From TrEMBL:
Keywords: Cell membrane, Lipid biosynthesis, Lipid metabolism, Membrane, Nucleotidyltransferase, Phospholipid biosynthesis, Phospholipid metabolism, Transferase, Transmembrane, Transmembrane helix. It comes from Streptomyces californicus. Residues 1-97 are annotated as: Disordered. It catalyses: a 1,2-diacyl-sn-glycero-3-phosphate + CTP + H(+) = a CDP-1,2-diacyl-sn-glycerol + diphosphate. Belongs to the CDS family. This is Phosphatidate cytidylyltransferase. The lineage of its organism: Bacteria, Bacillati, Actinomycetota, Actinomycetes, Kitasatosporales. Pathway: Lipid metabolism; Phospholipid metabolism; CDP-diacylglycerol biosynthesis; CDP-diacylglycerol from sn-glycerol 3-phosphate: step 3/3. The chain crosses the membrane at residues 101-119, 153-171, 206-226, 232-251, 272-291, 347-364. GO terms for cellular component: plasma membrane.
């Protein structure tokens, strides 16, 4: 049985529900209508109270009948609701860089000018620039370890030993750098003995790690500088690292969709890595052909590939450290960049790679 079986006859002009549809006059329909009528409640014979209850029942029946005459529902919950408007999706937002690009570019150009001027005027001045960067980097790293993990890596022996490593590497070569590294580690062990033994192991472990991570890796830049064309080797190292980072940023920002290592650095993508490789290999071919004595373009392709790999791993490595520490940047010294360590993250592990490949391709002198 469908709804039309209960509908009003044509022309009745009634829009109620089937249950409320008025039926034609007749005995059968009168019985049905009687069954649909709400029975009056039985009220005890109490003065005033009975009359009030009965009057309320009559008023309720009147309201129901009035609602039925206009085709409306009997209950408020059955009132038709206007469809809720579906909120419009927010307009797509343009990709934005995570840092102040103007400040970052300005600071980058300033640092580049200092490096180039010191590199091509007096090599010893550039060695001093390396040593200064090492000391500031060690200060940032040990400060964050103390603040976030309560690890007290001794800064004094690290700073003195770090400067000694850079100078010894420039003056005595790899042997001098290794000796200075060993003495720095020993100084960290001894200096930490002047304080209570609680936390000794974690403090000295962090100290030895800091000595290797910052000054020892930076010493390979000084080792490049000792060659006859040392300034061009260092410039090649710096240019290729910057080109690799720029290629990764530009391509990843524009085309990046597939995450490279989301648990370590969510912003890095596989497309960005491909951009780093392409930019660094192209730059390496040009640098080896025009800047390095005895270099060949195909060697530059391999050099660029090595730079892209080591720079990316270095960036991920420091991102891992910062995630463990729960910080975004190692410092705030460089507007738009963070701290010194945030600029050294890809340079430090790339230095030994470039030094080794250049020694293999064109020799150490």
């Amino acid at each position: 049985m469908n709804d039309s079986s209960w509908g009003a006859p044509q022309g009745a002009g009634f829009r109620g529900t089937p249950e409320m549809t008025a039926a034609p006059a007749g005995p059968v329909h009168d019985v049905h209508g009687a069954q649909q009528t709400r029975p009056m409640p039985i009220v005890p014979d109490v003065p005033d109270a009975g009359r009030d209850v009965g009057r309320e029942a009559e008023n309720r029946d009147d309201r129901d009948r009035d609602a039925a005459h206009v085709g409306g529902p009997l209950f408020r919950d059955e009132m038709p609701q206007e469809p809720m408007s579906t909120p419009l999706p927010p307009p797509p937002q343009k990709k934005r860089a995570g840092r102040d690009l103007r400040a970052a570019i300005g600071v980058g150009l300033g640092l580049g000018a200092v490096i180039v001027v010191s590199l091509f005027i007096v090599k010893a001045v550039f060695v001093g620039v390396i040593a200064l960067a090492v000391v500031v980097g060690l200060w940032e790293l040990t400060s964050r370890l103390k603040e976030r993990k309560d690890i007290d890596a001794p800064l004094a022996p690290l700073a003195v030993g770090g400067v000694a490593m850079v100078v010894a590497g420039y003056a005595r070569g790899p042997e001098g750098a290794w000796i200075a590294m060993a003495l720095t580690a020993l100084a960290v062990l001894v200096q930490r003995m002047t304080r209570p033994p609680e936390g000794y192991l974690k403090d000295v472990t962090a100290g030895v790690f800091a000595a290797f991570y910052v000054p020892f890796l930076a010493t390979f830049v000084a080792l490049m500088l000792t060659a006859d064309d040392g300034e061009w080797r260092v410039l090649t190292f710096l240019v290729l690292t910057v080109v690799s980072d720029t290629g990764a940023y530009a391509v990843g920002w524009r085309f990046g969709k597939h995450k490279l290592a989301p648990r370590i650095s969510p912003g890095k993508t596989r497309e960005g890595l491909l951009g780093a490789v392409a930019f660094a290999m192209a730059g390496g071919a040009l640098c080896m052909e025009f800047l390095i004595d005895g270099g060949a373009w195909w060697q530059g392709l391999l050099l660029g590939l090595g730079v892209a790999a080591s720079a990316t791993l270095g960036d991920l490595g420091e991102s891992m450290i910062k995630r463990d520490l729960g910080i975004k940047d190692m410092g705030t010294l460089l507007p738009g960049h963070g701290g010194i360590m945030d600029r050294l993250d890809s340079l430090l592990p790339t230095a030994p790679v470039v030094w080794l490949l250049l020694v293999l391709f064109v020799g150490s002198t």
